[in-house]
Amino acid sequence: MLTLTVFLSGAVLMSLEMVGSRILAPTFGSSIYIWGSLIVVVMAALTLGYYLGGRIADRYPDLLVIGIILAGAGGFIGFLPFWTSHVNAICGRLEPRLGSLMAASAFFFLPSILLATVSPYAVKLAGRNLENLGNVAGRLSAISSTGSVIGTLVTSFFLIPLTGVRNIVHSLGLILLLLALLIIGRPAGRDTRSTPGLFWLRRGVGLVVLVLIVLLVVFWRSTAFRALFSQDGVIYERDTLYNHVKVTQYDSLRYLRFDNSMQSGIDLNDPLRMVFRYTSFLHLGVVVCPQPERVLFIGLGGGSAPMKFLHDYPSLKTVDAVEIDPEVVKVARTYFALPEDPRLRVVTQDGRLFIQQMSDKIARGERAPYDLVIIDAYSASTIPYHLTTLEFLQAVRQVLAPGGAVVSNIIGALAGPYSSLFRAMTRTFDAVFPQRYIFPVYGWDGVSDTAEQNIILIATTDPRYRSKTVWEEQAEELFARGMIEEEVPLFVRNLVDDPLVFQEAWLADVPLLTDDYAPVDTLKHPLL
């Protein structure tokens, strides 16, 4: 029984920690602060739990106490999904670091303490004498670690994409409650059976645990049933290996959401209308490279941008769209009308890995380079740092044809306390490409305008600088000739030609992002 208890306690603890990131992500995104908060809370809880477990075990060396501890942990974990959203909403009003730390503490500190007490308690109960105590402690520690390994592996590789986070957490709580009931219901030793007070304590605790199990199952089933008939606009929802994916619909507008970030939208009455303004600004790349033949999208989302490019530019021979999450590809085809076009190739792969492999093929003459590379893999809360670095952009340049361009959608600010990330990314683009152009989607009023928004950064391999007048003339010509359907003449008016963005001082206090040093989360949320 001790072996099973130690194994399951380790498995549940690590499974809870792995799924904890998905509990926090809908409010706090997927930044490094999420994992930092989880690790800090769990490690602090383990420290306190090991200490308390040893103290309690010396004073009350009875398996019944482990049953009570497991019942407490199981009850807390089992009912956790019923109140996480409310606590997340409260903590979400705080600064991201403090908010995620407070939420992680509320959700995981207490159950982690309780589960940590199991190991020293088990060592106390299993140790017969000092001669074999080291062997007992080592064996039980190995069993606990084995449970932790299996819990981590099964949860992260299989359970999260197969079932919802709520189901996983409810199951973890139910496992602990059933284990507690098994321990409490086991026949006690001869001396224990002769103690009437302990007999009734077992009966009372067992009854409480049984009630908790029944309530958990009833509430779990009723919540799942209500979710099937939810009227809040959600038509699809699932946890994948990479995101909490949700599709919602209001009238004719359908939206795709990852965690706490809106990703894509479609108007079912007019699928080619760009619901989000920034996706129309992506067509500014065609002003640089008219009549493109090969375009690469890094990041698919709902696929509205690739679909629009395929419709608008008959010159296109190939559109490659790279998406790391296979479930997102299915959602794009099922809910967002991503076409089955022979010119469209959707690749399920990490964007950087694809770029590296394609660079090798282009160098060997096996594939033609791209006229445009469109990077739309960043969101307000999730920034894959390896897609921001100097090394990544150098690889991107290698897959571009002469005269090609990179079009990147970045959420940030041009000035003020929250401009560091965008300026650092601009500095990194400047280190790779001879020219870059900045188009704030909603315009920019100068240094006093510190609002965050979608900013389209276009970097070109052409060393010649295009003035705002040249951009306007080219956009007007292409639009008038019907070579671009989006209203690019209006968009080029947002080109930033403020002297500030051409001064060295604008980029002097931000780092060059490299694989060795790319503090994107800290730049996004400055410490001071």
From TrEMBL:
InterPro entries per UniProt: PABS, SAM-dependent_MTases_sf, Spermi_synthase
Q: A single GO BP annotation from the record?
A: spermidine biosynthetic process
Can you say what this protein is called?
Polyamine aminopropyltransferase
* Matching SUPFAM superfamilies: S-adenosyl-L-methionine-dependent methyltransferases
Q: Does the keyword Membrane apply?
A: yes
Naturally occurring in which organism (per UniProt) = Capillibacterium thermochitinicola
Entry similarity comment: Belongs to the spermidine/spermine synthase family.
Q: What does this protein do?
A: Catalyzes the irreversible transfer of a propylamine group from the amino donor S-adenosylmethioninamine (decarboxy-AdoMet) to putrescine (1,4-diaminobutane) to yield spermidine.
